[in-house]
Amino acid sequence: MFKTFLIKYGEIGIKGKNRHLFEAALVNQIRQALDSVEGEFQVYREQGRIYIDVEGFYDFEETVEALQRVFGIVGICPVMKVEDRGLEELGNDVIEYLSNTYDMKNQTFKIDTRRARKSYPVESMEVNRCLGGRVLDAFPGVSVDVHNPELMIHVEIREKIYIYSKIIPGPGGMPVGTNGKAMLLLSGGIDSPVAGYMIAKRGVALDATYFHAPPYTSERAKQKVVDLAKLVARYSGPINLHVVNFTDIQLYIYDKCPHDELTIIMRRYMMKIAEHFAGETRSLALVTGESIGQVASQTMQSLAATNEVCEIPVFRPLIGFDKQDIVDIAEKIGTYETSILPFEDCCTIFVAKHPVTKPNLNAIKRSEKKLEERIDELVRTAIETTEVIRVE
Ligand code: ATP
Ligand code: MG
Fold this sequence. Notes:
VC0802-like
């Protein structure tokens, strides 16, 4: 029924040149999101507004859901767009809009006119009064409430006139592409997809790295990570997923180093390799799903020891979150069901019964000395044999 949407976006801090970049990125992201939705959509900017026109058949719910995954959108307003044919006709249009949109009984309402086209011959207050009177006449039982109306009926007078009252909430955030790119360490767990979502929400595009350990981890475990990347990509746009074969490095560490330090040392090599791919893909930071104290490898000491190998910033958007908070977001964004599928993770297979919880950096470095003979070559091979999967 609605042939036009008005897109509301946050405007704080986007002045001057930034505003133009923000809007261009937002239009771009909206187009991408609607690509996979059936229907002919025209997305355009006009006088500091973003509109979407639809031709022919489309699925309203599906369209709104796709838009609710576009960061930067604060509100999605289905609007009735009409030609300016005078105030009398505008009254008819408002009445038609209300009968089509609501079951009009005894609601309270307010007309809120914005006269963006200053040459319009009637002042906003007068338009409000006139349209308000028409609505009162048309629907017995309704009444005006200027302070707390149930229906706030917006009438925007521009070249055309836009009538709307529903503002469906968008996800907020910044359009992806306005804040560079980061490299997400994506595992098959609950946390890292959520971490990726949160960084993408700030306008950051993503690539990802997954450490795979065949035959200890199966093809299905890898497929699960590809599936998770797809779910994150619904928000972040395309992700180049780097699948690193980590088996030989893990076995070598297992062979040479104390088993209680295994996880920390392994994680240090993961960070190094992910940082290498960050450099190759012009990602400016790493992103992980770590949260203080969640497991032995995420104590303050462990985080410091893992962080020490990295030169670029490491963002941990979940650092202060309880597990339940993370689960709530995972459910909201639709990754939870996939994350809890029971496939083995490369970290769990080699973990010691009693991993160190307060690793001493000097001790770790001493243990790593025992890897000197072959580790560089193994890291090089892991990098060279990495498979890159483009996930859209
Ligand atoms: P997640 O639920 O994200 O797997 P987790 O609670 O299982 O996290 P860890 O296994 O300690 O925690 O991993 C901490 C972080 O390290 C993960 O959030 C992820 O960013 C990264 N990570 C762990 N394992 C892998 C892996 N196999 N490939 C890529 N990144 C990984
Ligand atoms: Mg994990």
